[in-house]
Amino acid sequence: MKVSFENLTADELTISLSGDLGLENVDELKRILELRLPNMNKISIELKDVESFDLSTQQIFLAAAIYAKNKGQYFKVHFNIDQDLTQLIETSGITENFINKITLETKD
């Protein structure tokens, strides 16, 4: 998994993720979000060039979205992935409802 950070303002952050977003990297992803979420009012996750994505990643993003919503923060995941991975994600059970939950814009 490759990670890059871009601070747009003191409390606004974009995290770009690419590569393997599967079980092997879920602990690192969780750690990144646990460190950043409490200190930011707005976090955007950009997914691009993703090679794998599984249920563990779904759960981390959903937990982060719920945390942000409860704190009145903005949290959004932008899926910029190819057609093959889109099909794989849909086959794995990620529904439109899930996508809507983790792309909640909880604060203007």
Give a description of the structure:
- With 108 residues, the chain is an alpha/beta fold.
- It has one domain (2-102): 2-Layer Sandwich (Transcription Regulator spoIIAA), CATH 3.30.750.24.
- Helix content is 41%, strand content 34%.
- The chain is built from 4 helices and 4 strands; from the N terminus they run E-E-H-E-H-E-H-H.
- The chain has helices at 26-36, 55-71, 83-91, 96-102, and strands spanning 2-9, 12-21, 42-53, 74-80.
- A 4-stranded mixed sheet has the order 1-2-3-4, covered by helices on one side.
- Helix 1 packs parallel to helix 2 (55-71).
- The longest helix is centred in the middle third of the chain and has 17 residues, at 55-71.
- It is globular and about 35 Å long.
- 21% of the residues are buried.
- Mean pLDDT is 81; it is low at 104-108.
Would you identify the CATH H-level superfamily? STAS domain
Contiguous runs where pLDDT drops below 50 for at least 5 residues: 104-108
Strand order of the largest sheet: 1-2-3-4
Q: What is the total tally of β strands?
A: 4
Number of domains: 1
Structural class: alpha/beta
Order of helices and strands: EEHEHEHH
| CATH fold description | Transcription Regulator spoIIAA
CATH architecture: 2-Layer Sandwich
Q: Report helical residue fraction.
A: 40-55%
Radius of gyration: 13 Å
Relative strand content: 25-35%
Mean pLDDT across all amino acids: 81
What is the terminal-to-terminal distance?
30 Å
For the sheet with most strands, the description reads:
4 strands, mixed
State the shape. Answer: globular
Number of helical regions: 4
The CATH top-level class label: Alpha Beta
